[in-house]
Amino acid sequence: MEELDVPQMKREVESLQRQLGMGREKASVTVTELVKWVEGGYCEDPFLNPELMRANPWVEKSKCVIL
Amino acid sequence: MAAEKAEMDKLKKECDALRTQIEAARKAVNDGSMSASAGGVAGLGRIQLKLRKNLKGHLAKIYAMHWSADSRQMVSASQDGKLLIWDTFTGNKLVAVPLKSAWVMSVAFAPSGNLVASGGLDNICTVYNIKAASPKTLRELDAHTGYLSCCRFLSDTEILTASGDTTCCLWDLETGKQKTVFTNHIGDCMSLALSPDMNTFISGACDSLAKLWDLREGACKQTFSGHTSDINAIAFFQNGHAIITGSDDCSCKMYDLRSDQEVITYQDPSLNAGVTSVALSNSGRLIFAGYDDFNCHIWDSLKGEKIGVLSGHDNRVSCTGVPNDGMGVCTGSWDSFLKLWN
């Protein structure tokens, strides 16, 4: 881990001031919205929607055909 | 000498005060939790995936892999000194790119599919045109003073790199020059990921911090702490609002960008191996994390539980990736094989 010199420390102070200034939203809202968004994505997620996995690109096509 | 030390002390005090204020600002919005928000979410049970393909071809440790945007081709990098481009539907190797330096640590596929990039202990990011009759070196991006740990294309004309020299860099491929240098980490940068809207990116470093950067302004917007060792892997949720990190401290963490905090830690007392790589399923519900214990473990991102494992490699899992269509997951290992699972 490198030691900073004076100019780098000054930039770190400026950076921290900028980072402090961001608008933080309430976690009760943002985390709930994140959960909703994840749940809304299940139908498009092949790991969670078996219908999508039917057309599995990594499985050998069957050699037998039902006539 | 004394004056400089006095100024340093003053600046250090300012930094400490600002960090304390940032922690206070985080606490002020920490009125929720994942267990509260995900309380009503149904558990998934055990996830069991099948090994669909075992891709053999490399002759030494695989260090990196990256899916093409077409979800069919994939590029892998090995310290046997080659990049291999695979057609994962057939298992065939399409292109072999011989490397000038065998000590490769990262590889990337351009979204267009026309270019791949790699780099490592040579400190250089080399970009290759793989659509030419034989792979042609397009650019050698040579300005980092430390190893290249990660690279990602924004397009055929811009690429982002992360380096052991503690900086990340945005390059213009038309001129071969650096556009922006992102300086703020105090340890080797190990990993980066682009936000879905391409306005920001995140980096993980050996200073155990993850940082969110504004791509165009070059400034660090947010810093996420909590890990107690190197962050080796990092990924965005596809809505751009949360990130997952993987660390040598044997845990993964989720950070929520909007409330600027750590939301959940994924760790298990039986897991005493560092995390090398992370990838998310398309909805973000599943985290695929590669570990030094030769396995890729599957975590339920909302419940914080380990719900599956991909076993089969004979050495450390060094890289993991889910293609854009989300149809499966690829693991690459020091055992020289790549495995496809779904």
UniProtKB/TrEMBL annotation, chain A:
The record, for CDD domains, names:
GGL (cd00068)
Q: Which GO terms describe its cellular component?
A: heterotrimeric G-protein complex
Domain of life of the organism in this record?
Eukaryota
UniProt cross-references to SMART domains, sorted A to Z? G_gamma (SM01224), GGL (SM00224)
Q: Which InterPro entries would you find in this protein's record?
A: G-protein_gamma-like_dom (IPR015898), GGL_sf (IPR036284), GNG13 (IPR039227)
- Give all residue intervals belonging to the G protein gamma domain: 2-67
**Its Gene Ontology biological processes?**
phospholipase C-activating G protein-coupled receptor signaling pathway; sensory perception of taste
GO MF assignments? G-protein beta-subunit binding
Name of the protein in question:
Guanine nucleotide-binding protein G(I)/G(S)/G(O) subunit gamma-13a
Q: What is the lineage of its organism?
A: Eukaryota, Metazoa, Chordata, Craniata, Vertebrata
Automatic annotation (TrEMBL), chain B:
Record's PROSITE patterns? WD_REPEATS_1, WD_REPEATS_2, WD_REPEATS_REGION
Top-level taxon of the source organism: Eukaryota
Give a Pfam family name: WD40_Gbeta
Organism, by scientific name, is Betta splendens
Q: Does the keyword Lipoprotein apply?
A: no
Taxonomy, top ranks, is: Eukaryota, Metazoa, Chordata, Craniata, Vertebrata
Q: Which residues form a coiled coil?
A: 1-28
Alphabetized SUPFAM superfamilies for the sequence? WD40 repeat-like (SSF50978)
* Similarity section: Belongs to the WD repeat G protein beta family.
Q: What are the ranges of the WD repeats?
A: 55-96, 141-181, 182-223, 224-265, 310-342
The keyword NADP is annotated on this UniProt entry: no
Provide the protein name. Guanine nucleotide-binding protein G(I)/G(S)/G(T) subunit beta-3b
One GO biological-process annotation of the entry reads:
signal transduction
Which InterPro entries does this UniProt record tie to the protein? G-protein_beta_1-5, WD40/YVTN_repeat-like_dom_sf, WD40_G-protein_beta-like, WD40_PAC1, WD40_repeat_CS, WD40_repeat_dom_sf, WD40_rpt
> What's the encoding gene here?
gnb3b
Could you tell me the keywords of this UniProt record? Coiled coil, Repeat, Transducer, WD repeat
